[in-house]
């Protein structure tokens, strides 16, 4: 058995209680935001210490709270590819790639540098700094860096979530090759049905911290009801915006919408171009106060116009932001805890990377 | 206007020596304390924080007096160090360096602490998953990322030491050739008739050193930032 997990963990009001085993070459942890996927991989990777339970990877006990076993992350030999790459900014690509190898005992170094570099197509990037790479290149380097530490298991926490469709399409083949070469078993966190349909050999469906289903991919994917239950319908708003300026230093483009300024990854469109931008409901976070110290670039003030039931535990909050209508999908719990109600002023937070250029289409004034 | 007299050169050289030693000696403890204060969760952290910051708010003369009591020949620490290690602070240039180091310490710690707070902990987690134990993570991830803050702290500490007056003169007096630094020499000049020329010369030297130090630190910090951010 590659992976045997049985843990309970409380984090604030959230409780994770999961139990599953998997022998798949690529196990997908699937579920909506807030279902506990990241907490679960963090527990496997050693970034979170579960309150109770056991985690066994390839017959090696990493966590057993009864026996007081907790292997620290640097001794687990588990690679982790994070959502935001997390490359070391003070090192170039080659140094980043070799970082983990330095800490791998010499006799256990099996992964060949040239092979990994070739597999991921990053040979031409070796002398570059992470800040000069595109999102897709960064993730490929992050995957390479994890592989070159010769991990027993590779965790990938939505490694493609911050990329647009074109970049995703660029990386899928590499993950497929990785899976099919069979060197390192992979655990992939995803909330995209298309993604897991393409990549997974086994699937664990999580819902509100519990395992809703687990098993071979083909079997799980037939039960579409499972996916409906997890509330993954792609609700979203379409708004009109104009290209205001480009911030070349950061590779960003600033758009002017009715709701305010939106910062998005650089779009190759001249200033003044009118665009349609789709903002998915699940990419919008609500905050009662204007947030500070947040990495998300887009914060739009607005007013709640109505709140509607959505599937399961979630609700769709309709917002009026300077005339633009946005929709945010939040949990029923958040609605209650934040006291959300129509007429309440609110701040909508949108991660710039949540913008999907595929959903951006040129438009003439008045066509919306 | 003529050049510096030999006595004035001595004061300049001594000032540079005292400031450099004060800065260098407080660097390692400064990084350690900044780390403890920013990351540590231990009993007495608040008290340590207050203690480190005291020289910033106390009158320098008070700090000097404490040093005199503690590190003087007959002080408990001073007597111990003199007896066992042969290190004497009172009325020596080493005492001036100690006074300057203590007065500059809160500035050094604050600058480094701010840069530690700005380090993305997620990068440290990533280094951990790649097999680096906490010591290695500090050495190869955290430390390189806080270099700009360390440089800023060093410059502040150096500048403070170059200008330190109250604690120095209280603790080690104003002995030409031994403890007379630029500020105490300027003060001595202003106390004697016809000392204006000397005071002016040393003032100009002091300004020149300050500007040079500031420029050097800017240059170093720019280089460090470029190294970090590509």
Tertiary shape of chain A: globular
| Inertia-based shape of chain B | globular
Mean pLDDT of chain A: 83
Number of separate domains of chain A: 2
Give the tally of structural domains of chain B: 1
How helical, in percent, are the residues of chain B? over 70%
**Which spans of chain A of ≥5 residues are poorly predicted at pLDDT below 50?**
229-233, 356-368
What is the helix fraction of residues of chain A, given as a range? 10-25%
Number of helices of chain B: 11
**Average of the residue pLDDT scores of chain B:** 91
Q: Briefly note the CATH topology name of chain B.
A: MetI-like fold
CATH architecture classification of the largest domain in chain A: 3-Layer(aba) Sandwich
CATH class of chain B: Mainly Alpha
String of helices and strands of chain B: HHHHHHHHHHH
Count of individual beta strands of chain A? 21
Helix and strand content put the structural class of chain B at mainly alpha
Gap from first CA to last CA of chain B: 48 Å
Query: Which structural category fits the helices and strands of chain A?
Result: alpha+beta
Please give the CATH architecture of chain B: Orthogonal Bundle
Strand order within the widest beta sheet of chain A:
7-8-9-3-10-11
Membrane topology (chain B): Multi-pass membrane protein
Subcellular location (chain B): Cell inner membrane; Cell membrane
Function (chain B): Part of the binding-protein-dependent transport system for molybdenum; probably responsible for the translocation of the substrate across the membrane.
Domain ABC transmembrane type-1 (chain B): 12-213
């Amino acid at each position: 058995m590659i992976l045997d997990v049985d843990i309970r963990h409380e984090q604030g009001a959230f409780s994770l209680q999961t139990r599953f085993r998997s022998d798949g070459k690529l196990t997908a942890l699937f579920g909506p935001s807030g279902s506990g996927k990241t907490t679960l991989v963090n527990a496997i990777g050693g970034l979170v210490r579960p309150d109770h339970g056991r985690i066994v990877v390839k017959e090696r006990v990493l966590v057993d709270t009864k026996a007081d076993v907790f292997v620290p992350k640097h001794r687990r030999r588990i690679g982790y590819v994070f959502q935001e790459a997390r490359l070391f900014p003070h090192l170039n690509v080659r140094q980043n790639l070799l970082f983990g190898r330095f800490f791998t005992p010499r006799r256990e170094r099996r992964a060949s540098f040239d092979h990994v570099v070739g597999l991921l197509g990053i040979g031409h990037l070796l002398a570059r700094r992470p800040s000069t790479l595109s999102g897709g290149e960064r993730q490929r380097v992050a995957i390479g860096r994890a592989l070159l530490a010769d991990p027993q298991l590779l965790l990938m926490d939505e490694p493609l979530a911050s990329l647009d469709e074109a970049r995703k399409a660029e990386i899928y083949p590499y993950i497929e090759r990785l899976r099919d070469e069979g060197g390192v078993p992979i655990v992939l966190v995803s909330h995209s049905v298309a993604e897991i349909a393409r990549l997974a050999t086994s699937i664990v469906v999580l819902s509100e911290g519990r395992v809703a289903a687990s098993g071979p991919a083909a079997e799980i994917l037939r039960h579409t009801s499972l996916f409906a239950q997890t509330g993954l319908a792609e609700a979203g708003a379409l708004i009109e915006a104009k290209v205001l300026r480009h911030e070349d230093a950061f590779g960003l483009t600033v758009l002017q919408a009715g709701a305010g300024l939106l910062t998005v990854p650089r779009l190759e469109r001249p200033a003044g171009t009118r665009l349609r931008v789709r903002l998915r409901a699940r990419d919008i976070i609500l905050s009662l106060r204007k947030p500070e110290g947040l990495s998300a670039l887009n914060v739009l003030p607005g007013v709640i116009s109505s709140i509607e039931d959505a599937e399961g535990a979630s609700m769709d909050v309709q917002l009026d932001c300077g005339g633009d209508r946005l929709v945010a999908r939040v949990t029923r719990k958040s609605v209650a805890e934040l006291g959300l109600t129509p007429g309440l002023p609110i701040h909508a937070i949108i991660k710039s990377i949540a913008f999907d250029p595929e959903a951006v289409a040129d438009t003439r004034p008045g066509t919306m | 206007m003529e050049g510096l007299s030999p006595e004035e050169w001595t004061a300049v050289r001594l000032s540079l020596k005292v400031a450099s030693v004060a800065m260098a000696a407080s660097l390692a403890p400064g990084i350690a304390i900044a780390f403890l204060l920013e990351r540590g969760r231990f009993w007495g952290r608040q008290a340590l924080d207050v203690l480190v910051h005291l020289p910033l708010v106390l009158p320098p003369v008070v700090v000097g007096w404490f040093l005199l009591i503690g590190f003087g020949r007959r002080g408990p620490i001073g007597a111990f160090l003199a007896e066992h290690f042969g290190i004497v602070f009172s009325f020596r240039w080493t005492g001036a360096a100690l006074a300057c180091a203590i007065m500059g310490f809160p500035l050094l710690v604050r600058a480094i602490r701010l840069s530690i707070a700005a380090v993305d902990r997620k990068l440290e987690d990533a280094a951990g998953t790649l097999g680096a134990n906490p010591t290695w993570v500090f050495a190869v991830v955290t430390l390189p990322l806080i270099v700009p803050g360390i440089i800023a702290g060093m410059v502040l500490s150096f500048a403070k030491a170059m200008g330190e007056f109250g604690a120095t003169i209280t603790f080690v007096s104003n002995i030409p050739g031994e403890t007379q630094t630029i500020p105490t020499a300027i003060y001595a000049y202003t106390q004697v008739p016809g000392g204006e020329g000397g005071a002016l010369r040393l003032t100009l030297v002091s300004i020149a050193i300050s500007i040079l130090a500031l420029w050097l630190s800017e240059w170093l910090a720019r280089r460090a930032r470029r190294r970090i951010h590509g």
